[in-house]
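lol so apparently i was supposed to do this last week
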Amino acid sequence: MVIHIVEDDPGVNESLRVLLQALDHVVISHSTATALFTAPLPTQDDLVIVDLGLPDIDGASVIRWLKNLSAPPRVVAISGQSQKLIDRALKGFQALTVLRKPLSGDALVSFIA
Amino acid sequence: MPKSSPMVHEARLLGILDTAADGIIVINAKADILVFNKACEAMFGYAASDVLGKNISLLMPSDFSVDHDRYVSHYLETGERRIIGIGREVRGKHADGTVFPLELSVGEAQTPDGRQFIGVIRDVRSRKAVEQRLNQLQAQLVNMARVQAIDEMGAAIAHELNQPLTAVMLYLQAVIRKTSSDTASQLAPQTLEILNKALREAERAGGIIQRMRHSVERREPERQACDLNALIDEALELVLLGHDIEGLQIVRDLDAMLTHVHVDPIPIQQVLANLLRNAMEAVRKSDRRMIKIQSMVSGGQAIVNIEDSGPGIPPDGLSNLFKAFATTKKSGLGLGLMISRSIAQNHGGDLTVDGGGDGRGATFSLRLPLIVGSHEQGIADQ
Ligand SMILES: Nc1ncnc2c1ncn2[C@@H]1O[C@H](COP(=O)(O)OP(=O)(O)OP(=O)(O)O)[C@@H](O)[C@H]1O
Ligand SMILES: [Mg+2]
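anyway here it is w/ magnesium ion bound
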């Protein structure tokens, strides 16, 4: 399993990578949606962590794109925005896990497991 | 027939008296009314014939008429002026008993019949009413702005603090997990204990942020059908109040369809006032000072565009514009746009900007949904 990170905040992006690597995961991190789109596709075994507030393309569109792949990976959304904005952004998604910031490593680890 | 004073004998003067927009009253040293012009009749609700020869105190509220007698006798005795030649705001009493504010200037004349005083009176009720309304509006807005600003600021700062705090928590967890699983890099138990404490403190800060956020998230805008154009005009009135508007051109292009937009009027007016104030400040140093306000309906949304002829916003300034404490002004807090965007989003709308440049000023666009529908309910997560 490879864990892909799409997060524009450099601190959150790097600390996520450092934590996941400390847990012996293979991690590929991107700071934009465009970077994810142009990299090798995530596979069905992979997990993609998507920040909802990306600068180039909104996180919801990224998630939609991922879910429409022929062999979609698992997806978890992370967001520092208000619940209302999250609800609005993710309207129509079923059974999507959203972890809100501040993000605890435990919540993430238990989701990965 | 009224006993005319020599001072107003001339026909020309009499003509002036009755066409004057200001009230004119002439009294003698005993304060008996000698002249009472048409404007006074309208102002006080008495016919001249009712009041001529009567004491001027008839036209004053009783507390003031006592003072007035004292003024007159004080002046006659000492020559010391209280009102004469100065002009001041006093209160008058209408025939129906209503007390109203008026502006009074008094002149004095020596006539063969003795000393006379001529009072020129201006009814300041309409001006007063406008002032009062503006004061009220402003007080309300300032007060609301405070309450709202504290909440919104809390929410927005919570949001901004979230990122670094998340990073701190994840870094700490990375160290703790790494060193407890990997025997080669094991830490002294005391060091590990300190890291765990640091993590707990970071989590505590996270809890505080969540509480700040929750108090705002639970609050829904109190919507009512509002005339958005009226809100724009009121905000404009408020922002222009007390500013040097010499040479400032305001262009309003308002869509008459926007009379029933469902919003919480006070915060929305606050957004409009913030944007207009920023625009006013942006054009201050420009050769051509213009603010254009446009409202319209498009794509199920009410849109208000506020464009100014200021310097615009450089591209590298755009990314931080809506963040807390982003200001280029000496006395600015840098909260106006942050709060405004948060209010717009809380309404299901948004606030965006086109920075302009190359001779164009900035254009801010406030978008508000016209139909408040099911998306407000949202979906549950987790
Ligand atoms: N119309 C505009 N044209 C050019 N720059 C603008 C305009 N509106 C805002 N800005 C820039 O954006 C910054 C942030 O605006 P904001 O309203 O958030 O804060 P502020 O006006 O500085 O302070 P305050 O909290 O008192 O409103 C301003 O300091 C100014 O540099
Ligand atoms: Mg401002």
